[in-house]
């Protein structure tokens, strides 16, 4: 981590557009190995920081945190830890396992409330997304921490909060016609076809030959990469993916 903070500190980023900074920082991690469930470790909830292997969410959180530090002009490990925790937990307060923003639609909404980003999906042509996630509380066997019934109950309450909000998404068949509203550096959250799950994958928009592609930690190639195909074509054949939500950092 210190090497990335040092690299970030060598340039005055205060006047750089935060989206441009996201793309730049995101490329620093290209070819980093993909490791799944990096946050799902036994024991008490910890602020996990492991850059040797990243899943799609930890890659996104790492890049967003570094880009925000670049704009803030603060480069210590303590600063990084504080800002990462603010991003990862409900209202920025780390507690037990249920305080983590497990559902990415909740992650977007909570960080929009903090002023860190804006959900721009509706602004660029998105339609209402019926979002009633219950996958985690319905399948505790997939999560070691959910052997604690109290945690399952807390998650159920959070799922009710998530389900009470209004969301938008861009159906995947509409992405090609609406992608001009997406900027390089925007956050891309791929929506699930399953009724009880919200988001199945996340990454960043990048431009390549005039088209929007996805820069992400890929479970297929097992590393951080830029998708070979444009985003619209990348999603098209995947039946588990229904479309995208798009968020944009505010630079704050």
Structural features, described:
It comes from Mariniradius saccharolyticus AK6. This protein has 252 residues and is an alpha+beta fold. The protein has one domain: Putative xylanase fold. The protein is built from 9 helices and 8 strands. The radius of gyration is 17 Å and the shape is globular. The two termini are 22 Å apart.
CATH class: Mainly Alpha
The strand count comes to 8
Q: Give the % helix.
A: 25-40%
Number of helices: 9
Please state roughly what percent of the residues sit in beta strands, choosing from under 5%, 5-15%, 15-25%, 25-35%, 35-45% or over 45%: 15-25%
Radius of gyration: 17 Å
Shape category: globular
The ordered string of helix (H) and strand (E) elements is HHHHHEEHHEHEEEEHE
**Oligomeric organization of the protein chains:** single chain
Distance between the termini: 22 Å
Return the domain count.
1
Overall pLDDT metric: 94
Biggest β-sheet strands, sense, barrel? 8 strands, antiparallel
Low-confidence stretches: none
| Structural class estimated from helices and strands | alpha+beta
Pfam families: AmiA-like
InterPro entries: AmiA-like (IPR010846), Papain-like_cys_pep_sf (IPR038765)
Protein name: Cytosolic protein
Organism: Mariniradius saccharolyticus AK6
For the structure shown, list the relevant keywords:
252 residues, alpha+beta, Putative xylanase fold, eight-stranded antiparallel β-sheet, 19% strand, AmiA-like, Cytosolic protein, Papain-like_cys_pep_sf
